[in-house]
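INFO  loader      accepted 1 record
INFO  loader      residues=178
INFO  predictor   begin
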Amino acid sequence: NVFNSPYEHAIALCKEIVHSKIKARFQTIELNPAFIDDTLFVAMEEAGFVGVGVTAESAEDGVLRGLGKSYTAQDIRRAAEVVARHKIPCFWLFLLGGPNETPQSVEETFQFAKKFIRPSDTVFFNIGIRIYPGTELEKIARRQGVLKVPAEEMLKPVFYISPEVDKDWLTKKLKREI
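INFO  predictor   done
INFO  writer      dumping tokens
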């Protein structure tokens, strides 16, 4: 469900849309920051994309590693620079409170948003990450003592927030920043 992974497929799909003369308005909310470049954005513009989303999740490497992401903060910065050179509106998604999150990493993510995201784009900050049974995040949460309910009681959503970040502080910080 990540449009630009595999990258070559996304380029080929855009070229086929242009070749087939399909006249439609396309959007994707799921771009992997590691595979964003000018070639992709030109192909998407030519194909008729009118909106994209980058699920960055964090702008700090420790949190990205904790989330098991295959991209880095540098990849996210490069992606933002590409987005800024093109006209397609962008939606950015950040998940605050993930594994390895600290007050310093929260600050780095907010500073990234202020410095690199265009004022005309949309930024969504979410506090906490839903824990699903059987996932790596469930294992992390149980190991840290953050999650105590049994898996069979997780039909009602349960959310993870790094034990290194106070939820009240994070909520107040987010309200100050937006």
